[in-house]
Design brief:
By secondary structure, the chain is an alpha/beta fold. The protein folds into four domains: 134 residues, P-loop containing nucleotide triphosphate hydrolases (Rossmann fold), CATH 3.40.50.300; 72 residues, Helicase, Ruva Protein, domain 3, CATH 1.10.8.60; 89 residues, Zinc Finger, Delta Prime, domain 3 (Up-down Bundle); 71 residues, Orthogonal Bundle (post-AAA+ oligomerization domain-like). Helices cover 50% and strands 7% of the residues. The chain has a five-stranded parallel β-sheet, with helices on both faces. A two-stranded parallel ribbon has the order 6-7. Helix 5 runs parallel beside helix 6, helix 14 runs antiparallel to helix 17 and helix 16 runs antiparallel to helix 17. The longest helix has 16 residues. The termini are far apart.
């Protein structure tokens, strides 16, 4: 079986790596770490085909470290532990250069699978390099994330993609057997979506379907690439563009557009659980307490899709999409936690007021833990005004209700209870 062009053109040394100048340029932060010989555990976050796997391999080759690789799709805790045991057996040899364990699609690892990596990463038995197309803040457990540096890899620019094509024509043994003129590149670049692997695979398809000499034009590219291969690429740029259009259509209260983009994803073979998960996030982020039932609806949809699967799940997804699109919108809860987190980062670990502290021991009671706390249920309307924030930030308003029927009632409730304290 012939090796695909994308694999044949994979860089063998760091100097051949194209793109990601912010990391691998002369002043790139990762390049400086490699030059210093200090390589921490890393998470590479970026879209497909931008060099995550290649870069991990080149780091191992450059630093002369043993390289183990696992895919989160077909590896579990057992495989992780086997690799860690191999690393331990070679601990003496790798005293200063511990082996690298590369895990592709690390966001697919469960919590228990990620937990199994913690000890080996913390003790330096392995240097972990994980690759993910999803935001690691959501997909990687905090304990593991705190032990890794996260580097964002960007989609390749036009100059990078054209350089890849030129290199393939000039250097690949099989392509050099053809007489190739690269007259136009727009169609190739558009179909690739910034994915180097996809670009080279499409290019090889075109070359193999033409007799030499070959002139690459936009028209020939569009003729040769079958329609169904470009309708929807669930691992490429269209994946991100279409889910973005889908979310924005629901946020914009347009059920017609939302169902259209849903159909585009379903017809393209997108994982229905991924679609349901994004709607679950949207139900809280963009609708929130303007219609609290939206979150229940989205969660029920998420569970139903897990149970039923495709093709019947498309009906459930459509029902939920239409419901969410027709719901009133509010991002007040999203803004509140965002502002609260910024306040925490700014003010640090402020002490909990004494009257709010738990007092399970006599010593704590003697230190006035819990003293003067007013139990709301002992007062009219189950409310009594008291301070619940640390003194340094008292009276701070973090939640601003949205202007919709439900949250307008929240505003009236808070104004009635707190009067002028928070300015509701």
């Amino acid at each position: 079986m012939n090796t695909p062009l994308a694999e044949r053109m994979r860089p063998q040394v760091l100097s051949e790596f194209i793109g990601q100048e912010h990391l691998m340029g002369s002043n790139g932060v990762l390049k400086q770490q490699l030059n210093s010989g200090h390589i921490p555990s890393l998470i590479f976050w970026g879209p497909p085909g931008v060099g995550k796997t290649t870069l991990a391999q080149l780091i191992a080759q450059h630093s002369k470290r043993s390289f183990y690789t696992l895919s989160a799709i077909n590896s579990g805790v057992k495989e992780v532990r086997e690799v860690i045991e191999k690393a331990k057996q070679n601990e003496g040899f790798f005293a200063t250069k511990n082996p690298i364990l590369f895990i592709d699609e690390i966001h697919r690892f469960s919590k228990s699978q990620q937990d199994s990596l913690l000890g080996a990463v913390e003790k330096g038995i392995i240097t972990l390099i994980g690759a993910t197309t999803e935001n690691p803040s959501f997909e990687v457990i905090s304990a593991l994330l705190s032990r890794c540096q996260v580097y964002i890899l960007n989609s390749l620019e036009r100059k990078h993609l054209e350089q890849l094509l030129t290199n393939a024509i000039e250097k690949d043994i099989e392509l050099k057997q053809h007489q190739i003129e690269l007259k136009e590149t727009e169609a190739l670049l558009q179909l690739s979506g910034g994915d180097a692997r996809r670009l080279l695979n499409i290019f090889e398809l075109i070359v193999n379907s033409e007799a030499s000499p070959i002139t690459i034009t936009n028209e020939i590219v569009m003729q040769k690439v079958q329609k169904n291969t470009v309708l929807y690429d669930k691992t490429g740029e269209q994946h991100y563009d279409i889910i973005s259009a889908f979310i924005k259509s629901i946020r914009g209260s347009d059920p017609n557009a939302a169902v259209y983009w849903l159909a585009r994803m379903i017809e393209g073979g997108e994982d229905v659980k991924f679609i349901a998960r994004r709607m679950l996030i949207l139900a809280s982020e963009d609708i929130g307490n303007a219609n609290p039932t939206a979150l229940i609806m989205a969660n029920n949809t998420f569970q139903a899709v897990h149970t039923i699967g495709y093709p019947e799940s498309r009906i459930i997804l459509s029902q939920c999409v239409i419901y969410l699109a027709n719901s009133p919108k509010s991002n007040a809860s999203y803004l509140a936690i965002k502002e609260a987190q910024q306040l925490v980062r700014k003010t640090g670990d402020l002490p909990v007021p004494l009257h709010l502290r738990n007092a399970p021991t006599n010593l704590m009671k003697e230190l006035d833990y819990g003293k003067n706390y007013l139990y709301a249920h002992q007062y009219d309307d189950n409310f009594i005004e008291q301070e619940f924030l640390p003194d340094a930030i008292k009276n701070t308003k973090l939640y601003e209700p949205g202007f919709n029927a439900k949250e307008n009632s929240f505003r009236e409730f808070l104004k009635n209870r707190w009067k002028d304290k928070y300015g509701y």
